[in-house]
Amino acid sequence: MNHHSLPDKRGHFGAFGGKFVPETLMPALKELEEAYLE
């Protein structure tokens, strides 16, 4: 397994930084992340 197979500390994968979740969940995940960081 190479380092692109594992997420970084922000949960991003590979050189493009995508998250491995369905696109329809992104608004909810962004809201959750912002609430967590407060």
TrEMBL record:
Gene3D superfamilies: 3.40.50.1100. InterPro entries: TrpB-like_PALP_sf. SUPFAM superfamilies: Tryptophan synthase beta subunit-like PLP-dependent enzymes. This is Tryptophan synthase subunit beta. It comes from marine sediment metagenome.
